[in-house]
Amino acid sequence: xxxxxxxSMLTGAAGLILAxxxxxxxxxxxxxxxxxNMIAQPEPPILMVGLNTQGPTLYVGGQIYQSLLxxxxxxxxxxxxxxxxxxxEDGLTYTFTLQDNVKWHDGKPFSADDVVFTADKFLxxxxxxxxxxxxxxxxxxxxxxxxxxxxxxxxxFSAFLHAFELSSFPIIPKHLYDNxxxxxxxxxxxxxxxxGPFKLKxxxxxxxxxxxRNEDYWKPGQPYLDELYFRIIPDSASRAVAFxxxxxxxxxxxxxxxxEVRRLVKLxxxxxxxxxxxxYAPLVFMEMNQRTMPFSDKNVRKAIMHAIDREFxxxxxxxxxxxxxxxxxxxxxxxxxxxxxxxxxxxxKAKKLLAxxxxxxxxxxxxxxxxPYGAAWDRMAEYIKQQIAQLGFKIAITGVDAGGWSQKxxxxxxxxxxxxxxxxGDPALGVARHYLSNNIIKGTPYGNNEHYINPxxxxxxxxxxxxxxxxxxxxxxxEAQKIIVDDVALGWLYEMQNVTxxxxxxxxxxxxxxxxxxxxxxxxxxx
Amino acid sequence: xxxxxxxxxxxxxxxxxxxxxLDRAFxxxxxxxxxxxxxxxxxxxxxxxxxxxxxxxxxxxxxxxxTPTNGEILFRGKNLxxxxxxxxxxxxxxxxxxxxxxxxxxxxxxxxxGDQIAEVLQVHGEKSADARNRRVLDLLEFVxxxxxxxxxxxxxxxxxxxxxxxxxxAMALALEPALLIADEPTTALDVTTQAQILELIRKIQQAxxxxxxxxxxxxxxxxxxxxxxxxxERGLIVEQGPADAVLNRPxxxxxxxxxxxxxxxxxxxxxxxxxxxxxxxxxxLRKVYSSGGGLFSKPRIVKxxxxxxxxxxxxxxxxxxxxxxxxxxxxxxxxxxLTEIDGGEILFRGSxxxxxxxxxxxxxxxxxxxxxxxxxxxxxxxQTVGRILTDGxxxxxxxxxxxxxxxxxxxxxxxxxxxxxxxxxxxxxxxxxxxxxxARALALEPELLVADESVSALDVSVQAxxxxxxxxLQNKLNIAIIFITHDLRIAAQICDRIAVMYRGxxxxxxxxxxxxxxxxxxxxxxxxxxxxxSHWNPRLAVL
Amino acid sequence: xxxLDFLFQRLLKAILVVLGVVILNFMLIHMxxxxxxxxxxxxxxxxxxxxxAQLRAQFGLDQPLYWQLWTYLQGVLTGxxxxxxxxxxxxxxxxxxxxxATLLLxxxxxxxxxxxxxxxxxxxxxxxxxxxxxxxxxxxxxFYATPLFWIALMAVLVFSLHLDWLPPFDMESIxxxxxxxxxxxxxxxxxxxxTVTLGLFFxxxxxxxxxxxxxxxxxxxxxKTARAKGVPKAQVIRRHVLRNAILPVFTFASMQAxxxxxxxxxxETVFAWPGIGRLMFDxxxxxxxxxxxxxxxxxxxxxxxxxxxxDLMYRFVDPRIEAAx
Amino acid sequence: MTFFKRYAQxxxxxxxxxxxxxxxxxxxxxxxxxxxxxxxxxxxxxxSPSENPAFPFGTDMLGRDIAAGLAxxxxxxxxxxxxxxxxxxxxxxxxxxxxxxxxGRIDDILMRFTEFFQTIPAFAMAIVLVAIxxxxxxxxxxxxxxxxxxxxxxxxxxEFLSLRSREFVQAAVVIGQSGPRIMFTQILPNAIxxxxxxxSLMVATAILTESSLSFLGLGDRNMxxxxxxxxxxxxxxxxxxxxxxxxxxxxLLTVLAINLIxxxxxxxxxxxxxxxxx
Lengths: 527, 543, 325, 278
Hints:
heterotetramer, B: 543 residues, six-stranded mixed β-sheet, 24% strand, C: 325 residues, 79% helix, 0% strand
């Protein structure tokens, strides 16, 4: 449980201008030059981060585009394009001061106008998460000075300072997009222009994306690296081979299968870290559609939880890369509470729960729709299917591709499925969306698709989100967790642990809570 | 026919065993004969007699599963059977050459004919391309092909059947071999072409002094060119001797039987005029085939049947005679409405069949039946004879039991065992199958029978039996027959009237004696002149 | 003239076939339950009904199906294969980027399998009944029965991981800056495994076909004629049998050209080959309809062109064809 | 009797038949041999074949018995292979027969239609069909059928075209049999042997296609199939070779067996070709 004194954070931030970043004091002197080889998996459809927030897009696009803030491994905001920020005591006014001498890759100067355009127009129109925040909380966005941006809120939003990470708030060049064209078909999407340390040199679709050093980068002397290659290798076994043979230097979490991780981390001159995912803290759960029987019955949901050996899943399917989740909050995040009901693996208890609830499992045919993200997910589906079948339910796996999954989830056309959520540093951003009853909306797989309705929970989440005091929020969240877990709103399975594997010659690789999505201006390669 | 001390070729006690499980142990059994330089030796026999096999054995071209076990083939005193393949290769094409039955399939379809001839010269050591080219032109000229310079560059499919066979002969002659083996070289050709090729072979043989071994089944051909004759039956030589002796004074019963079966017009038995009621009147019948054509080229149009008219009475037999491509088979198909008709009338018992739709004509089909050419292809191999015979009546509404009884009767009528009913066509010989085919046609009690080359695939002795059967049935049942054939001799033998077709038209029409003895049209005259063995009367030989 | 006619007819037929393929696929793909708009919206993290409706309107998915087809066909006529929803690039651009890689791979596999298959088939037929024949035919049968992806995996295991002879993926070494011959050699080096993997199945097919065809031709009369001329056996095979026997193999091979693309989907996935096979598979999983349709259209066009070329060559090689038409 | 004798002369065909019979018996008796579902974890994960005699083929990453997977996989492979082929043959024979028998415009239309299907790469088309209609045993079977009928149609058309002009068919016309009757009773029985031979080879191809689909993750998720097993094991190729090796061998042997049988049938049904074979 990470304990953070929210008040001190707020007040501290109010007067303090942070210089430098965490871990800037390197053990050795950085060496300039060199090529870093990585893998973009799957190949991003586009590098324009404002239009696509998939992992690979952020990974590559994060070197090109930058956001106002980034976040440390402790989830504290750190300067990025904003060199400092001030939050008013009432929690309604946020003032950001921007870095100086920042230029876009095409040589045009970067200014507060770009930020205002990004926040008020571009992202409001094209970014589903920002759109929600902007409509619900933001009163106005203005730039009183060319290096200052002011956000005025309608009501306090405790998570607001966590909304400026790359995936939520990449800054878009106004001069290329504010010309009345359709953002999605704007030709500039093909030649991304950002402020980041690397520029796009060449994208050979299906092969690689090649980025080169931005000579006019606003941090003098940086970046250290000359070139970045993101290679496209669709087969996971081949990706492991590529790392082994030294073709690539870095493996991002998920690039290779769990058991390969076990092997690769043991290689000579190879290091690994699970750090760099704190801001996302992905948590995997099973969605049980509560609209109809049997899952509308809380006892059935409880029985299911008892029937699944989550330790087995973590150990044998994900090869130990994770830990069993106790509830909706990842244990590494703010406001996590361990004071919730537990659901140990216990087949007998599961059967008893069903019997007590007078549920005859044989009456139900359940469709289990796996998440089409790879072999391990399939194995998990097969395992859970088998476990539920042992309870006596008729259960069949419905194979779907990514499109089908998204579609069926969005249409609530499922009985059981899997999903995982990024927590984005604050429950209001990443967690609450799955439990708020007003977020039961068709059209997205990442809302309250399971149809969980508990007015008390709604109230607690809203209370916490609007709280200026961190204590109030923490208390409300703790209570909410207890209720949600007792209701088995979702079947939490485990917290993903993503391992970044890299050659030890690569220095300063993972430094922040957004890990490899962080622009690599300080990364260098030892000779 | 000058006998020499050492014959050019001597077959001495040659035996070639057949693989186990066939109807006899030896393909050829202990045969011996000689061929002298400068003579034409005819090997004559029916299918399966082993005559072609003997020819192939001499050339060393037997298939893998056949190996001579006994005897010698002495060619100029050297035993060919003892030679190894490379040695044989130097002899083949140089000192001995062969001409095959089917000139189209015997030529490489993808090679220009000039090149195919030149290859003989090349493999036997002629290195100069110029010399080869000159020789090819000479040869083409010599075998009587027009425009050799042009023809040399043509592909085989461009040539007519006769031209192809001339190319084959040119190829065989290229190095002036001492021995020429001709394996049924005229069987696949029209009768007029056959006459020309026979003439050519005789001319060459005389000019070059070669020994020619000529394999044939046709006694007419034998009568035309043979110096000496060897008669084979089921792998054995039953008779051999000078042509005159064998043809006119055959000793062996088999030879006598064969000769007796050779179709021949007997001037004596002129047909009586048939005066049954009018059954069929064909007026101005036309059928045109067009092929190819498009935006940039004109279609090729062939008038297969061009304005043909004739009549037929009950009990009458009309012979339609013509060479391949004359339109005679198309005419037959038109009469049965097996093909679209482009014009004219077919009045059957007074009503026109031409405008009838397929379904409207179907009930009438039983009145007009057909006997087909190929006894192997015309019976469904997956059906029993009984099924084949009852299908027709059943399709025309006759109860099965009745049809079955009728079928058994018919089997008897066409001279087959009644037990044939439950057997499959494969179990019968060609002649027996053709009887089944006839029975099938008769099962519907037709009034008109169209027989399209119905005996041409049969051996001569079987041919005669089937012809007898047809005539016999006609007498019994008083049906009208249209007999389509390429063989004028057969038509003359059995028909009341003959129509000679040439390029889609009837050029000659009349009773056999008029067509034969006083042909009016130039084509008919050429046709009659080309009949092999016309100077020889087989009837006299077996009197 | 006849050749002109033939060309005209075949072109007309080719266009018809491609058109038919486009319409067939268009209907088929639009029967799919997955809606690309909701997929995109879902991936974007959220998406309310309004957002999806907006996307649908943008992609033209709100129009009636026949109208979508009509618009699409109009585009095709002007060389516009539509716009990829996901990649934000015109489909034509995407395909043209990927096509060379696939053409290289399938072309090499085609030539490899044809040359090797014919060579082995000829040897087997020539040495019929020998140990060489049995060996060739048994291996052909085994490769004919082995799943392609399995061979691919095994090949990577053996030749890349254990022996380290050949690169297991990619089309070229990235970042080397090779140009000219060095680059060609590098690509060739990368080409070996995918080509062989993709080609082995077809090699097996052509080996069997060639042998059968050779034996069939060897039984024909003109072969006997050639032997009667005293032509040595080797020359008979070379000059007479081979040419006649290869024609049906070529015809079959040209008809199979399209199947290579099917195999390319598997091969390109395993070997990270940046071709349209993978593009197609990715597009399918992402419900990127325009790309999918475009790939099918281009594939069909390539197949039709290959068949057309084969037909023309056939006409050239076999003089009988023109006459038969 | 002679048919079986001819068939038995081909040793390869006999071996093929023996293998197929074994596979079929295992498939039929799978629930008896392995009463526990092949999806059920029954042992420790990733046991190699030599580790535990109870699992002669080892276990997978979830401790499922590979042997049970192989047995149940045989059911799916054979079922999909046979049913999809049957469907393809029905489609192919119908279209080919109509085109070949009636010729002319009907032939033109049907053959153009067939060409559409032939122009699209079969496997690519199968992928699309399966993905679009969601992978399950029905969609996979139908998809394989839909992409594999064109060769049958062409074959049958060719047979019908040539048989149609044969004299015994003409004779059937002459004796007044109707078109459909001629197609079914005269022509079809004579075209049946090449159809059977082709069909037997198609079963083999269908099994390969099914395994390739499963390999790409487009198999029926509730049916244990060999292709699925390889697909699932593919990522663990080096760690647990047995997981992909045995299903691979199973496919290889089965497909090989069916091909051998196909060749045997071909030889036995077309005895005139035998003399020319080695």
